[in-house]
Specification:
Layout: H1 18-30, E1 34-39, E2 47-51, E3 59-68, E4 71-79, H2 84-93
Antiparallel strand pairs: 1-2, 2-3, 3-4
């Protein structure tokens, strides 16, 4: 009976260190992109939106995730086109 259960492996999100996210932000800004800090971080960079108004670069959303009381990691997600949720946030900030 147990062999007929559909087993799936859960999707695992990669967590990045503060230094690797810092390098991503620096390289993105050097390439002509812009940065919006959506939420200030506790141990890392917090929630950051990397975007390019010209549309030549990908849009990146970086979220800080608490691992335990004294360390955190960052989830990084890239988009070819900026999602409307973040476009509305940028329009609200301007």
């Amino acid at each position: 009976m147990a062999s007929k259960l559909p087993w799936t492996t859960p999707k695992v999100q990669t967590l990045y260190t503060t230094s690797s996210v810092g390098r991503l932000i620096a390289e993105y800004l050097d390439a002509g992109g812009q940065m919006l800090q959506m939420r200030e971080g506790v141990l890392g960079h917090g929630d950051v939106l990397l975007y390019d108004d010209a549309g030549k670069l990908k849009t990146y959303v970086i979220r800080e995730v608490a691992i335990n009381e004294w360390s955190s990691g960052h989830k990084v997600r890239g988009y070819n086109r900026m999602p409307e949720k973040y476009r509305a946030l940028l329009d609200k900030q301007r």
